Amino acid sequence: MSWTDVADLLGLVCLFLGALLCLAASIGLLRFPDLLTRMHAGTKPQVLGVLLVILGVGLRTRSGLDVGMLLLIALFQLLTIPAGAHMVGRAGFRTGQVAPADIHLGRRHRRPEA
Amino acid sequence: MTAAGRRVSLPGVLWLTLVWVLLWGSFSPLTIVGGLVVAVLILLAFPLPRVTIALRPRPWPLAVLVLRFLLDVVVSSFHVAWLAVRPGPPVRGVVLDIELAGDDELLQTMTAEMVALVPGTVVIDLDPGERLLTLHALGVTTPRQAQQVRWRVLGQEARVLRALHPDPAGQLDPRRGRDEGTVDE
Question: Where is this region: Disordered (chain B) (predicted)?
């Protein structure tokens, strides 16, 4: 087995795991009961799934500029997915679709109402 | 320097040109010149708000931050994936808010972005003035579990502050919040 075979095999394993995680994310989107629990499914397994797919594709192509493009995709995924989930969650929170905070931790003082 | 000159910064132009070239996937005079033109146009058309960046990166805490974050992403992904496919009733969660220790808005934002990807939490809202982070915790039902979430978030923030803030000890001093509370009254 040469190094390219090893890289191909690792790439295939990454692609497979990434696809499984994306599948789990979509099952979570269907099964979870409300907006905020669905945001969990849409952010975490989704991010790692996409990162693993990108890693798998990178291991199988191995050309400099393509790897650069893949790194760019990974970077923007990591930057935009939390921000997007935050926007959706906040919109639901502020329009009253979600119950207000039921556990307050560490708010030691409230500012006087001005 | 004119206002337009301040907006079009050299690092910004170079970064956007690099992105453009990578997206085309080829180094050629056409993509490089095209990238420069597009970069300047973007910087002129969409000026960024001026952010005062007072960060001091430290190599070792930064490495701890990045490695721990990658580990957390892996753990939380498999955790949520398991919660999604396991048999039984669907999982629920609670909304809780947590007071952060640091007041640098950029670092608060970084903390919030990272908290959104680590186990069990999605960020809903961040109030920089009050240093109040509102988040949703998955699979939390008891106050004790909520406390554990709080320690995890504060630990994440401490790693961000230690890696990048000029004065992490001052920000993380537990007495700081109380002193400010009396000033507010």
Answer: 165-185
Q: Which residues in chain B have their CB less than 8 angstroms from residue A25's CB? A: 80-81, 84
Q: Mean per-residue pLDDT for A47-76?
A: 85
For residue A87, is it within any domain? Answer: yes
Tokens for A12?
A: 């295939």
Q: Is the pLDDT of residue B185 over 70?
A: no
Mutate to test the interface with A, among B17, B20, B21, B22 (most CBs of A within 10 A): B22
Chain B: residue whose CA lies nearest to A90: B124
How far A72 CA sits from the closest chain B CA (Å)? 7
Residue A99 resides in a domain: no
Number of domains in chain A: 1
Q: Kindly indicate whether the ipTM for this predicted assembly is greater than 0.90, answering yes or no.
A: no
Determine, yes or no, domain membership for A107: no
Is A112 within the bounds of a domain?
Answer: no
Question: Within an 8 Å CB–CB cutoff, is residue A114 touching chain B?
Answer: no
Write out the E strands in B83-159. 93-99, 121-127, 132-138
Taking residue A105's Cβ as centre, other Cβ atoms within 10 Å add up to 18
Host domain of residue A10: 3-94
Min Cα–Cα distance to chain B from A93, Å: 7
